[in-house]
C-alpha cells in the first residue's frame, strides 16, 4: 500500500483524541491482562483476607483479627474500602477477577493521561510520553489498593492542571473525590499536597483576596473530605506516620530504593527527559520544575514512587510539551452521529475480544510463588499449631486462615519484635529460640534463602517437610503426628 496513503490514514485514526485514548486504554489493558503482573505480591492476600472479614462481619476492624503475635492490638485499616473491592472481585471471578480489576484501573489511569496529552501535544510525543509513563508503572502494577486509586490520582492531577491553566480553583464538589481516596489508600496525602502547592502558586501569582478565598474554601473542603473515614481525624493523618517514624518501615521492600544494578524504568524516563531538554527548548515553570525534581528524588529513593512519577509526571511536563511540541491536528472534537456509534462498537468488540482470549487461555497462577503447594505438605493438625514465618508469606497464611507471627503490615508490629524476627530468620539461634518458646512454635514457613533453614537442618529436633525454590517448611518432630515422626522430608522438586 502506498506510504502516502498509510500515513494520512494513520494520522486520521490516531490523531483523533477519542480514538487515541481508546487505543491506549485497550493496549494497556491487554498488557496487564496477559502478563501475570498483578498477583506476584504477597500483601495481596492479607488485603483480600481483610476484605473477606469485613464482608462477613459488616464492619471495619479496629483491632488485629489475624495474627498470633499482636492479636487484639489496635489496627487502623485505612485501606478498608479497597480491600472490600479486592475481596468482591475475587469472590466473583477468582484470580481472573483480580487481574481484570487491576487491568481496568491501570487502563483508566492511562486513558486519563492519554486524553489530556492528546488535546494539545503532537501525536508522536503523546505516544512516547504515554509509553514512558506506563513503563514507570509496570514494576508496581499489583492487585493492591495503590493501583485501585491510580485513576483518582491521574484525574486529580489533570483537574489541578486545568485549574492552573484557568487561574481558578477546581469546582468545590471535586473535593469529594478525596472521600473514597482516603478510604482506599494513604496516597490521598499526596493529593492534598498537590492541591496546597497549586493554591500557593496561584495566590502568589495573582495577589487577589477573592482568589485566595476560593482556594481556601477548596482546601477546607478537602480537609473535611479526608476526615470522612472510620477513624476520623486520626485516619486523615495516619499516613504521615511513615514520615514521622521512618525507622518503623526499615527493611520493608517496597520502601527501598530501586535496584540500580539493573536498568530501571525511572532511569529510562529521566534520560529521555534529559535528552529532550538538551535538544529542545523544554522550559518548566519554577514550581513545576521543583515538583519534577521532588518526584524524581522520591522515585530513585523509594521504588513505590516510580508509579507516582509515571502517573503525575506527564501532567507536570504538559505545559512545556505543548509549547515545544504543539499538536497540529484538530481531531480533538468528538464527531456526532453514526461514526461515534461505530467507534464505540468497535472499541467494545476489541475489548470483548481481548477479554475472551484471556478467559480462553488462562495464565498459570502460583500464589506467592508456590506457597499453596508448600502448605499442602503440612498436615491439617500441624497447620492449627503456632507457626514461625517470614513477612512475605504471612499474608498468604492469613488468607488461608492460619495466624502468622509476622506479615506485611509494618505499622502494626513493634519495631523490636520485627527486628527480632528478622534476626531469627538470619540464623541467630538466641532470637529464634526465644520466639519459639514464647509462642510455642511447632513449624516454620519461610523462603528457602533464609539462613534459619540451614540451622534447622542441623537440629535433630526439627524435620523438613517440604522445600522448593519458593518456600521451605520445617516441623518440630514432637509436634508431628505419630506416623510422620519417622521422617517426612520431601526433596526439592
UniProtKB/TrEMBL annotation:
This is Transmembrane protein. Keywords: Membrane, Transmembrane, Transmembrane helix. The chain crosses the membrane at residues 20-39, 84-110, 116-135, 184-204, 216-238. It comes from Acetobacter ghanensis.
Amino acid at each position: 500500500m502506498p506510504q502516502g496513503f498509510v500515513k494520512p490514514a494513520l494520522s486520521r485514526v490516531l490523531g483523533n483524541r477519542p480514538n487515541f485514548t481508546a487505543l491506549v486504554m485497550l493496549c494497556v489493558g491487554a498488557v496487564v491482562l496477559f502478563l501475570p503482573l498483578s498477583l506476584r505480591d504477597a500483601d495481596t492476600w492479607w488485603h483480600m483476607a481483610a476484605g473477606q472479614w469485613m464482608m462477613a462481619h459488616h464492619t471495619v476492624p479496629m483491632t488485629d483479627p489475624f495474627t498470633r503475635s499482636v492479636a487484639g492490638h489496635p489496627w487502623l485499616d485505612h485501606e478498608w474500602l479497597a480491600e472490600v473491592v479486592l475481596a468482591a472481585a475475587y469472590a466473583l471471578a477468582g484470580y481472573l477477577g483480580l487481574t481484570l480489576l487491576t487491568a481496568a484501573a491501570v487502563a483508566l489511569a492511562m486513558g486519563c493521561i492519554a486524553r489530556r496529552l492528546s488535546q494539545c501535544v503532537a501525536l508522536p510525543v503523546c505516544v512516547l510520553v504515554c509509553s514512558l509513563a506506563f513503563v514507570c508503572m509496570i514494576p508496581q502494577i499489583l492487585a493492591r489498593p495503590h493501583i485501585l486509586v491510580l485513576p483518582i490520582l491521574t484525574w486529580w492531577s489533570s483537574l489541578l492542571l486545568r485549574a492552573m491553566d484557568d487561574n481558578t480553583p477546581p469546582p468545590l464538589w471535586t473535593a469529594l473525590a478525596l472521600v473514597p481516596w482516603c478510604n482506599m489508600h494513604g496516597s490521598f496525602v499526596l493529593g492534598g499536597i498537590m492541591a496546597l502547592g497549586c493554591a500557593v502558586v496561584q495566590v502568589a501569582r495573582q495577589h487577589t483576596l477573592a482568589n485566595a478565598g476560593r482556594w481556601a474554601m477548596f482546601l477546607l473542603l478537602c480537609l473535611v473530605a479526608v476526615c470522612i473515614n472510620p477513624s476520623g481525624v486520626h485516619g486523615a493523618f495516619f499516613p504521615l506516620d511513615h514520615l514521622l517514624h521512618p525507622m518503623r518501615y526499615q527493611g520493608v521492600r517496597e520502601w527501598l530504593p530501586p535496584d540500580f544494578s539493573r536498568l530501571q524504568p525511572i532511569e529510562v524516563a529521566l534520560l529521555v527527559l534529559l535528552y529532550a531538554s538538551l535538544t529542545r527548548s523544554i522550559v518548566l515553570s519554577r514550581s513545576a520544575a521543583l515538583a519534577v525534581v521532588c518526584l524524581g528524588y522520591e522515585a530513585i529513593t523509594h521504588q513505590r514512587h516510580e508509579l507516582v512519577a509515571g502517573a503525575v509526571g506527564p501532567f507536570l511536563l504538559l505545559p512545556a510539551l505543548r509549547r515545544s511540541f504543539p499538536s497540529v491536528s484538530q481531531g480533538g472534537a468528538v464527531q456526532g452521529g453514526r461514526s461515534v456509534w461505530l467507534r464505540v462498537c468497535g472499541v467494545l468488540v476489541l475489548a470483548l475480544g481481548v477479554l475472551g482470549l484471556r478467559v480462553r487461555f488462562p495464565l498459570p497462577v502460583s500464589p506467592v510463588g508456590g506457597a499453596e503447594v508448600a502448605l499442602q505438605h503440612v498436615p491439617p493438625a500441624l497447620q492449627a499449631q503456632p507457626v514461625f514465618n517470614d513477612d512475605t508469606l504471612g499474608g498468604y497464611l492469613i488468607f488461608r486462615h492460619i495466624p502468622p507471627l509476622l506479615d506485611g503490615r509494618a505499622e502494626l508490629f513493634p519495631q523490636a519484635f520485627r527486628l527480632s524476627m528478622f534476626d531469627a530468620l538470619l540464623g541467630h539461634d538466641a532470637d529464634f529460640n526465644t520466639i519459639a518458646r514464647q509462642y510455642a512454635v511447632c513449624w516454620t514457613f519461610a523462603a528457602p534463602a533464609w539462613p534459619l533453614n540451614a540451622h534447622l537442618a542441623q537440629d535433630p529436633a526439627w524435620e523438613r517437610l517440604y522445600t522448593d525454590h519458593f518456600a521451605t517448611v520445617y516441623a518440630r518432630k514432637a509436634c508431628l503426628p505419630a506416623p510422620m515422626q519417622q521422617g517426612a522430608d520431601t526433596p526439592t522438586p
